[in-house]
Design brief:
single chain, 712 residues, alpha/beta, Dimethylsulfoxide Reductase, domain 2, Barwin-like endoglucanases, seven-stranded mixed sheet, six-stranded mixed sheet, binds ligand MGD, binds iron/sulfur cluster, binds molybdenum atom
């Protein structure tokens, strides 16, 4: 009887003496959200992950990815040891080596590249993981290459460029004052799928408070369900919509003239420009009924201050994306909503600033004016001094830039996230030397000369700031798999081999040094934090800024710029000083490919390339589906679950059709990041925003054909 009971307890994973199951606090780092979790452990292994009630604002909930964490931790693809390639590039044949041999070889090869060709022919790259970037930039600087690039070549920076050129260098993203706003515009964000539980909670909090809500999203989403007005533009036409709304506001005299006179420049020129965006023309371009657009514009202006929540991706995943984003954020200036209570308040006291302290300050690059991207993307170079734009990496590896990239040191690099990953694979084959530091043997890693095994967040000591000002601690929940190391230990280990000091006067020589140094910003010591399992309040938080301080903007003119002086100084096609609207369809063969292809709208269970390998998550969608509105399916004579051929100007592939009434008619949606059936193979890598270099992921063109049936 007793034995059976124990079996049952074990099956139910009940933590108690009999089962030997213990519960440890962990910080999930899977998506960067840092949710507190309860990790159930037995015999030194994580057997289950649940939410943790101490997590501020979550009520103990986590997302599906967090709940499936053990499948990422114990996946057979995990790298366990440093390895060197013994087969052909791409073949995936490797042999175990020691950490010392790995780091010594990398240092030697990097030094060889530097001595033969100059340090700038080495690219140092990091994908989505963010926490160790400041130290990696120090490594890049110490080594001497300005070619430091990240996944932000397709994420966040374009929106930041729009904000920084308008509101000054300090304003990377104006954050909505969620607690106090009376009205909120959510423009191309679906935070209930894409944000951590707590960030999505802030949106729900505003909804529960009765905020008036305008959602701008081509599709119907759980976010748009709460909207008072849901505008559904054709993807990529956001600029025209925003300019049309501006015209309504100005022609009806609803703009905040006092604010405009006091804080902005260029209004008259902007006003003249927007007059061409009549409601009729805007309806024609965007597909949004003019009555709805007009109602939204009036509501925004009459109820202002009105913050706009924007995302790092969809609006700017367009070949006019940065200018479209400018057109949107200028609505904040027009309605007097930037930098005021109930509008947007960047960045306030507490969490945001503390997190910044943790991330550390990104270091400006050495010889930034010699990087590979500044000539093609001058606005990027002026606004984002900390990194190079690297969407052209395939060209650079092919030697089509000012000089070639011969060596790559990468952390978390996934070539499936870029357009035309097949071209990147060709480029990898040409490299002199390539390092991939990752959790897994990835498709990218298979092309590397050396792969380095990296710890997941549960395997390393971590500190996170959650809620407004509370610092949480995680001791390693389990021993690292194999010889996996923290990214920080790899960076500092390599720095030592290269004779580079990280951390300046207070050098960082290992992961623990890094933790010790970064927590000092809170006025706490690492020892104090280690002894506070339920979190500890920071002693120091950086002061917030007042509205008055925020409105003393740091643009070249010292005013919020309707006409951008930085853009004016670029002298390059597409880099107009006004937020000019160019329609992406003019650049595409829409007659032949009449459907709009949007890729990568977030799903709760998928996270770029990372989740397809996790069985619980892949169960829901093993391969990317082509989602299409029922009317389009009917016109094409296609049925749910049918295998169809999707064709674009650069390629074609077979995918399963999914009829989904939340899609906008005329636009199909496919998720990205899959190794097999990678939709980015079908996106032209020359289809880029000339200002930001961002690919047009959310507004390309395609057609669907029935799969040809061959009869014997
Ligand atoms: N589960 C999950 N969460 C994630 C990620 C993930 O992969 N999975 N990725 C993270 C990353 S890197 C990012 S950048 C964020 C992105 O976060 P979000 O921007 O919230 O996510 P998306 O779903 O890409 O886009 C939001 C909405 O924009 C709509 N949209 C598509 N094209 C357009 C357009 O042209 N105009 C407008 N107005 N709307 C458009 C889509 O229909 C979608 O509902 O998510 C982060 N969170
Ligand atoms: N078609 C299309 N393409 C897109 C997008 C889209 O919407 N549509 N979205 C774009 C956007 S917004 C983004 S942000 C990018 C994301 O692109 P990426 O950042 O490249 O994608 P991920 O799959 O999140 O992660 C890359 C790699 O990091 C590894 N990794 C995870 N954690 C760690 C860690 O702690 N250390 C190390 N060293 N490695 C780690 C993962 O195993 C993975 O191999 O994709 C872009 N590509
Ligand atoms: S939102 Fe999900 S994946 Fe992201 S940190 Fe939280 S639990 Fe982990
Ligand atoms: Mo992103």
């Amino acid at each position: 009887m007793k034995a059976l009971e124990k079996e049952e307890l074990l099956r139910a994973k009940i933590p108690c003496e009999e089962t030997g199951i213990t519960v440890k606090t962990g910080i999930c780092g899977f998506c960067g959200g840092s949710c507190l979790v309860n990790a159930y452990c037995k015999d030194g292994k994580v057997i289950k992950v649940e939410g943790n009630k101490d997590m501020p604002g979550s009520n103990g909930r986590i997302c599906v990815k967090g709940a499936a964490l053990k499948q990422s931790l114990y996946h057979p693809d995990r790298l366990l040891y440093p390895m060197k390639r013994v087969g052909e590039r791409g073949e995936g044949k490797f042999e175990r080596i020691s950490w010392d041999e790995a780091l010594t070889t990398i240092a030697e090869k990097m030094t060889e590249t530097k001595e033969k060709y100059g340090a700038k022919e080495t690219l140092i790259y990091v994908g989505h993981p963010k926490w160790f970037r400041p130290q990696l930039t120090e490594l890049a600087n110490g080594y001497g290459t300005p070619n430091f690039g990240t996944e932000s070549s397709t994420c966040a920076y374009s929106l930041m460029m729009a904000c920084m050129s308008t509101f000054g260098q300090e304003v990377r993203m104006p954050m909505p004052d969620m607690q106090r706003c009376k009205i909120l515009v959510v423009w191309g964000v679906n935070s209930l799928y894409s944000n951590s539980v707590t960030a999505g909670g802030a949106f729900i909090g505003a909804v529960k408070r009765g905020v008036k809500l305008i959602v701008v999203d081509p599709r119907c989403t759980p976010t748009s369900e709460h909207a008072d007005i849901h505008l559904r533009p054709i993807p990529g036409t956001d600029g025209a919509l925003a300019l049309g709304m501006a015209r309504v506001i100005i022609t009806e005299g609803l703009q905040n003239q006092e604010y405009i006179d006091k804080y902005t420049i260029g209004f008259d020129e902007y006003k003249d420009y927007v007059m061409q965006f009549t409601p009729e023309r805007v309806e024609e371009i965007t597909g949004v009924p003019k009555e709805d657009m007009t109602a939204a514009a009036r509501l925004m202006a009459k109820e202002a201050p009105c913050p706009i929540q924007l995302s790092a991706s969809p609006v700017v995943h367009n070949v006019n994306g940065m200018q479209n984003a400018r057109a949107i954020v200028l609505l904040l200036a027009l309605t007097g909503s930037f930098g005021v209570e109930g509008g947007t308040l960047p960045p306030g006291p507490g969490r945001a600033v503390l997190r910044e302290a943790f991330l550390g300050t990104m270091h400006a690059r050495v010889d930034a004016d010699q990087d590979l991207s500044h000539e093609e993307f001058p606005a990027w170079a002026r606004l984002t001094a900390q990194e190079a734009q690297v969407t052209r990496l395939a060209d650079y590896m092919e030697g089509k830039g000012a000089y070639p990239i011969r060596t790559i040191l990468s952390f978390g690099m996934n070539h499936h996230m870029w357009p035309r990953p097949d071209r990147l694979e060709e480029g990898f084959k040409k490299l002199d030397f390539f390092v991939s530091a990752d959790l897994y043997m990835t498709d990218t890693g298979k092309f590397a000369d050396i792969v380095l095994p990296i710890q997941t967040s549960l395997e390393r000591e971590q500190v996170a700031v959650l809620g407004a000002d509370t610092v949480y601690y995680q001791a390693p929940v389990v021993e690292p798999m194999g010889e996996a190391r923290s990214d920080m230990d790899v960076i500092t280990g390599l720095a030592e081999k290269l004779g580079i000091t990280i951390g300046g006067e207070e050098p960082i020589r290992c992961h623990e040094d890094y933790l010790r140094k970064s927590v000092s910003a809170t006025g706490l010591t690492l020892e104090e934090i280690r002894q506070a399992p339920k979190g500890i309040k920071a002693r120091k938080i950086m002061p917030g800024r007042t509205s008055e301080q925020i409105l003393q903007v740091k643009t070249p003119s010292g005013k919020i710029e309707f006409v951008s002086s930085i853009m004016a100084s670029c002298n390059k096609e597409g880099n107009e000083a006004l937020p000019v609207y160019h329609d992406f369809r003019e650049k595409l063969p829409m007659d032949e490919y009449p459907l709009i292809l949007t890729t990568g709208s977030r799903k709760p269970q998928l996270f770029h390339s990372r989740t397809y390998r996790m069985p619980w998550l892949a169960n829901l969608e093993e391969y990317p589906l082509v989602e299409i509105h029922p009317d389009d399916a009917q016109k094409l004579g296609m049925e749910d679950n049918e295998i169809v051929m999707i064709k674009t100007p650069v390629g074609s592939m077979e995918l399963v059709l999914s009829i989904n009434s939340s899609c906008l008619p005329g636009a199909v949606n496919v998720y990205h990041g899959a190794g097999d059936k990678d939709i980015n193979l079908l996106i032209d890598d020359n289809y880029l925003d000339p200002v930001s270099g961002f690919p047009g992921y959310k507004s390309y063109c395609c057609r669907l054909e029935k799969k040809e049936v061959h009869h014997e």
